[in-house]
Design a protein that fits this description.
- There is one protein chain.
- With about 220 residues, the protein is mainly beta.
- The protein folds into three domains: about 10-85, Elongation Factor Tu (Ef-tu), domain 3 (Beta Barrel); about 105-185, Elongation Factor Tu (Ef-tu), domain 3 (Beta Barrel); about 185-220, no CATH class.
- It has helices at about 65-70, 125-130, 160-165, 185-195, 210-215; strands at about 10-20, 20-25, 40-45, 45-55, 60-65, 80-85, 105-115, 120-125, 140, 145, 150, 155-160, 180-185, 200, 200-205.
- It has a seven-stranded antiparallel sheet.
- β1 (about 10-20) and β2 form a beta hairpin.
- It is globular and about 55 Å long.
- The model has no long low-confidence stretch (mean pLDDT about 90).
Length: about 220
């Protein structure tokens, strides 16, 4: 698990295609690897990868064919900058929100403009994941935990403050590029609870309803 608070901007050092999947070497920049061991997890642009080799200020990881298919890893180039975060520990401050490192889909950057000292971004998501994105809710973009300003159908808006621009790869984004999206874990589990289907051939009706959630303050008008 991760928090979505980026610890370092690194870069892709090597990409080695291997019979349908890939092995990648990531230079970690200022990320402290002194407490990292083989088998540990590091999120690279929001994708949870397992460290298989440590080499100076870099690490190697295997990227499965499924990950290549579902994320922007398939388009990565040597030298490309990436967001990095080590897996959280029990003592980690929860500055963002709980992030699994399992990308739900891709989003397309469709608008970028200055907004005072911040930068406004509009991103279009696929309908299959857009339904989980809510105004003032949490979204992970390339591993960065962010608050959604507004939602219009499949498009959502973000304001990126100077600190986030300086410490992530948001300052490298251009209109038309694609980013990794992970929706809030709670949204996925709530949907499952509200739409429970047949279990062992019998219709099971969940006691968790929209009216109950509204009554207890989880949904507001």
């Amino acid at each position: 698990m991760f928090t979505g608070i980026i610890e370092s901007v690194g870069s892709i050092q090597q990409l080695q295609p291997l019979q349908g999947d890939c092995r990648v070497q990531v230079a970690t920049g200022k990320l402290d690897l002194s407490d990292v061991k083989l088998g540990d997890s590091i999120a690279v642009n929001g994708v949870c990868l397992t460290v298989i080799e440590l080499q100076g200020h870099s690490f190697w990881a295997d990227v499965s064919g499924e990950t290549l298919r579902c994320t922007t890893f398939n388009d990565f180039k040597t030298g490309q900058k990436v967001n990095l975060e080590k897996a959280l520990m029990p003592t980690t401050r929860m500055g963002g929100h709980l992030v699994s490192g399992h990308v739900d889909g891709l989003g397309e950057v469709i608008e970028i403009k200055q907004a005072a000292r911040s930068v406004f971004f509009k991103i279009k998501a696929d309908m299959s994941i857009a339904k989980y994105i809510a105004a003032k809710g949490s979204i992970t973009v390339d591993g960065t935990s962010l608050t959604v300003n507004a939602v219009n159908d499949c498009e959502f808006e973000l304001n990126i403050i100077p600190q986030t621009l300086a410490e992530t790869i948001f300052n490298t984004y251009n209109v038309g590029m694609f980013v990794n999206l992970e929706v809030d874990l709670l949204a996925r589990y709530l949907e499952r609870l509200l739409t429970m289907g047949k279990i062992e051939g019998k219709e099971k009706v969940s006691t968790l309803t929209e009216s109950m959630l509204r009554e207890h303050g989880f949904i507001r008008n």
